[in-house]
């Protein structure tokens, strides 16, 4: 496997593994993501909830989509991010990677809960029921349980490096659920419709309905980058409080 | 910086673990696929795959022009189709707002020996397409106009 022998990671990859470096770069990037998130979510919400036209069949209840779809997409993306950073932590022994993974847990669980709740509220007027045990809904509920398990495991172990490794393995194995959620509506008969948002396929709705949704999705991605950076930087300050640069940073403030 | 052999080994072990577990889950889901399906399609029912006199779900489209409502009760009958096979459905209750001809539904109930599906719950299944009402009106009008044009040409 010669490609594997010669394969190496770029320099920035190792630099981000340094808590001090991550703290500084993250601090510089954070305001941009914050501004982008606030601007796009405000714009997308106002447009989607107030100005986008009502649906020809569902009327105004379809507007729940502007919260439900981003929440559902993000809940899965955060899970993948948690698993990938966990994998990096395991293989390269980077504690910053474990800190990022730890920061993802609660945010991801909240987005999953939001997706399930908005879905139930939407399901009552459109389907006629809050909940049905179809493959899409059930696999998403399993993801919420996986998040809860990851959070509980991470909290239960006091040693940060052991906790990081244990939760990394749980989240890596848990990613098998992600393709199941994604393709559930294609593999099996479900009550849930197929996806209405895809970067590769043609939109399933006109532009005045689609652009606010796009704004919400991109805005929510910015929001989680901002939140994960913030939480990871707090985590760095807490875990590296013995380091001299942290003391200097806190004094300067 | 070339990857450290120890790290490489670890990465391979984790990826192998993931592939193994993925394979197991895939096979389990494949084996269970009949149970994971939320509903039987009219073709499944016609092929005799659905059990009789047991609570099951059936799903399909409501055939246009097939809905018959009783005058003095909530009793309603319609034909559910997947455009290959049909199943007659009888239901006594309140239909969801989105129930209409040409729309997808999922009904829960029992399949009778005479082939009629007696439902006790009907859920509306909607698709992933969204449209403002003006657009649907425009499409309908265009459709009618083209039909009229076709008729006058004949």
Summarize the structure.
The complex is a heterodimer of chains A (253) and B (154). In chain A, 77% of the residues lie in helices and 0% in strands. Chain B has 154 residues and is of the alpha+beta class.
Commentary on this structure:
The complex is a heterodimer of chains A (253) and B (154). Chain A has 253 residues and is mostly helical. Chain A has helices at 2-6, 11-16, 19-51, 65-92, 95-126, 135-156, 160-174, 177-187, 207-239, 244-252. The longest helix of chain A is centred in the first third of the chain and has 33 residues, at 19-51. With 154 residues, chain B is of the alpha+beta class. In chain B, strands 1-3-4-6-5 form a five-stranded mixed β-barrel.
Name the strands of the widest sheet of chain B in spatial order: 1-3-4-6-5
Number of strands of chain B: 6
Show unreliable segments of chain A: none
The number of helical segments of chain B is 4
Binned strand content of chain B: 25-35%
Question: How much is the radius of gyration of chain B in Å?
Answer: 24 Å
Could you say which structural class the secondary elements and strand pairing of chain A correspond to?
mainly alpha
Query: What is the average per-residue confidence, as pLDDT of chain A, rounded to a whole number?
Result: 91
How helical, in percent, are the residues of chain A?
over 70%
Tally of DSSP helical segments of chain A: 10
Based on the structure, what is the oligomeric state of the protein chains?
heterodimer
Average predicted local confidence, pLDDT of chain B: 84
Q: Give the biggest sheet of chain B.
A: 5 strands, mixed, barrel
End-to-end Cα distance of chain A, whole Å, is: 51 Å
- The portion of residues forming beta strands of chain A comes to under 5%
According to DSSP, the number of beta strands of chain A is 0
- Termini distance of chain B? 77 Å
Backbone CA Rg of chain A: 20 Å
How many domain units of chain A?
A: 1
N-to-C series of helices and strands of chain B: HHHEEEEEEH
